[in-house]
C-alpha cells in the first residue's frame, strides 16, 4: 500500500468512520414481471386526462356520422383551442387528447391525402388546421397532447380495400406524428359498424410505425400495447383490476372481451394498464339538450377509475361555436376543487408506522407516510407467506380526526403484487378488497375516528411493496355512496 493510501486510511480510522458490512445499503427486491416502462409509469401518475370530441357530429347533432356530410357543415364561429385548455386545467389534467378524425372520415387537419378536411370547410376560409391549434394551445399551457385517428372511415372510398386503405391510414398517421411536435398518446380502436364493409386493420404495422415516429408515446387500444380499454364507457373498472393481461388473448374490436379487459389477468405476461373513458355529458359529442353529469356522479366515476388502479379519461365536448360550455368548465372546476378538498389533507400525517417486518434500511414502514411514490415499505421475504403481511398506523392521540376514505398505493414500478387486502380500524374490519395497484380508494360507510389503522395484505409472486397509506375525509360521501 502506497504512502498516500496509508494516510487516507489513518484519517478514516482517526475520525471513527469505518464502514461495516452491517451498514451497507440493502438492495431493493427483484421486480415481479411484467413491469411498466417509463412512459407507462408517468402516464399512470397523471390519474386524470381529457378527451375532446369535436367534428361533423357536433354540427349534425349525431354521435356517428354517415360520411356523406359536406365540408361546409363544419363552421365553428368562435373556436378557441386555448379555451379548451382552460377546461383541461380546470379538471387538473396534464394530457389532452383530440379526436382528429372520427368515423365520418372528416379530418380536422388539412391532410394531403383527402379533400374531406378543414381545407374544404368555410372555417377561416379553409386556411386553418385544428390539430395545429390544439397541439399549440396544449403545449403553451404545459399540457401534453394526444390524438385519436378513427380506423373506421365511412367517407373514404378506399375503405374495404385492405392494402389501399391501410396505406391511406398510415400516411395520415405519419402526418399527425411528424407535423405537430411531441404526441404523448395515440388512440386506436377497432370500431366497425354493423352491416358495413368489413375491413382488416393492420394494427401491428400501425403500432411499429408509431414507435418509429414517436419513441416515448403511449399507444392505446383494446390490447395496448401500452394502455388498454377498460371494457366500458362508463368510467368504471372492476373491483379487481390488474394492470397485466395476455395481449395474445385479445383481438382488437372483438365482442366478448370486455370482462377480461375490465379485470385484467393476474397471470398476464404484458403490462397494459387500463384507461377509463367517459364523457362529462351523456354523449361524446355536444348536444343542445344535454348537460354535464352532477358532481356526485363525477366523484363516483373517480373512485371507480382512479380509485381502482386506472387513469380517468374525461371527455368535454365543445359546442357548435367551437367552445366548451361555461357550465361544463364550471363543473370540471367543481370536480377538481372537490378532489383537492378530499385528498389535499392526509389525516394519517403524524402517525407512527410499524409492520409485520421490514426488509432493512430504506424500506421501513414509515415510507408509506412520506408522500413519495418512489419510496416504499418492503417486508422480509420470509414474512407473511402463510398469514399475509400487515402494516399499521398509530395516530397521535391529540389529533385523531374522523376519516371515511382509506388510500392504499403499491410501488408498481416493480410490478403489481397484492391480490387481497383488508383494512381494520381499532381492530374492526371496515373494508375488504382484492387488487391495489397504483391506487386503491375505499370509501367507508361512515366516518370513523380510530386510533389504529391496520392494512392486511396477501401478495402474489412476491412480497407487497406499499408506497402509501393515506386517510381522508370526504364530505361528499353521502352523495356518492
Automatic annotation (TrEMBL):
Residues 1-24 form the signal peptide. It is found in: Secreted, Extracellular space, Apoplast. One of its GO terms (cellular component) is lysosome. GO terms for biological process: fucose metabolic process; glycoside catabolic process. InterPro entries: Galactose-bd-like_sf, GH, Glyco_hydro_29, Glyco_hydro_29_N. Its main location: secreted. This is alpha-L-fucosidase. The keyword Hydrolase applies. GO terms for molecular function: alpha-L-fucosidase activity. It is an enzyme of class 3 (hydrolase). It comes from Lolium multiflorum.
Amino acid at each position: 500500500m502506497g504512502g498516500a493510501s496509508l494516510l487516507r486510511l489513518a484519517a478514516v480510522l482517526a475520525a471513527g468512520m469505518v464502514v461495516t458490512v452491517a451498514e451497507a445499503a440493502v438492495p431493493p427486491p427483484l421486480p415481479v414481471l411484467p413491469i411498466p416502462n417509463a412512459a407507462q409509469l408517468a402516464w399512470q401518475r397523471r390519474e386524470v386526462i381529457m378527451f375532446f370530441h369535436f367534428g361533423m357530429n357536433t354540427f349534425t347533432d349525431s354521435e356517428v356520422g354517415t360520411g356523406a356530410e359536406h365540408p361546409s357543415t363544419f363552421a365553428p364561429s368562435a373556436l378557441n383551442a386555448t379555451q379548451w385548455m382552460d377546461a383541461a386545467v380546470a379538471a387538473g389534467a396534464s394530457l389532452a387528447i383530440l379526436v382528429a378524425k372520427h368515423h365520418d372520415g372528416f379530418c380536422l387537419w388539412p391532410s394531403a391525402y383527402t379533400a374531406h378536411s378543414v381545407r374544404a370547410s368555410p372555417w377561416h376560409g379553409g386556411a386553418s388546421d385544428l390539430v395545429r391549434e390544439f397541439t399549440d394551445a396544449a403545449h403553451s399551457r404545459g399540457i401534453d397532447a394526444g390524438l385519436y385517428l378513427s380506423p373506421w372511415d365511412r367517407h373514404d372510398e378506399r375503405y374495404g380495400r385492405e392494402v389501399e386503405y391501410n396505406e391511406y391510414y398510415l400516411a395520415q398517421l405519419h402526418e399527425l406524428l411528424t407535423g405537430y411536435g411531441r404526441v404523448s398518446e395515440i388512440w386506436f380502436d377497432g370500431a366497425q359498424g354493423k352491416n358495413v364493409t368489413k375491413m382488416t386493420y393492420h394494427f401491428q404495422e400501425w403500432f411499429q410505425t408509431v414507435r418509429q415516429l414517436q419513441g416515448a408515446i403511449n399507444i392505446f387500444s383494446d390490447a395496448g400495447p401500452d394502455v388498454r380499454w377498460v371494457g366500458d364507457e362508463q368510467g368504471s373498472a372492476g373491483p379487481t383490476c390488474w394492470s397485466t393481461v395476455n395481449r395474445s388473448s385479445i383481438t382488437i374490436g372483438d365482442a366478448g372481451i370486455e370482462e377480461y379487459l375490465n379485470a385484467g389477468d393476474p397471470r398476464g405476461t404484458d403490462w397494459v394498464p387500463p384507461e377509463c373513458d367517459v364523457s362529462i355529458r351523456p354523449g361524446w359529442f355536444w348536444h343542445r339538450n344535454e348537460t354535464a353529469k352532477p358532481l356526485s356522479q363525477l366523484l363516483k366515476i373517480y373512485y371507480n377509475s382512479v380509485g381502482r388502479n386506472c387513469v380517468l379519461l374525461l371527455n368535454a365536448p365543445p359546442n357548435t361555436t367551437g367552445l366548451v360550455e361555461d357550465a361544463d368548465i364550471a363543473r370540471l372546476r367543481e370536480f377538481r376543487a372537490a378532489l383537492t378538498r378530499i385528498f389535499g389533507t392526509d389525516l394519517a400525517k403524524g402517525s407512527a408506522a410499524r409492520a409485520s417486518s421490514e426488509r432493512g434500511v430504506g424500506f421501513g414502514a414509515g415510507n408509506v407516510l412520506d408522500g413519495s411514490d418512489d419510496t416504499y415499505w418492503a417486508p422480509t421475504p420470509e414474512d407473511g407467506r402463510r398469514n399475509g403481511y400487515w402494516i399499521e398506523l398509530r395516530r397521535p392521540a391529540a389529533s385523531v380526526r374522523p376519516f371515511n376514505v382509506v388510500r392504499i398505493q403499491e410501488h408498481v414500478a416493480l410490478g403489481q403484487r397484492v391480490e387481497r387486502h383488508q383494512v381494520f380500524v381499532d381492530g374492526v374490519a371496515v373494508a375488504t378488497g382484492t387488487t391495489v395497484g397504483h391506487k386503491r380508494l375505499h370509501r367507508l360507510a361512515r366516518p370513523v375516528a380510530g386510533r389504529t389503522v391496520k392494512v392486511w395484505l396477501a401478495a402474489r409472486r412476491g412480497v407487497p411493496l406499499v408506497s402509501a397509506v393515506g386517510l381522508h375525509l370526504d364530505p361528499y360521501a353521502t352523495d356518492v355512496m
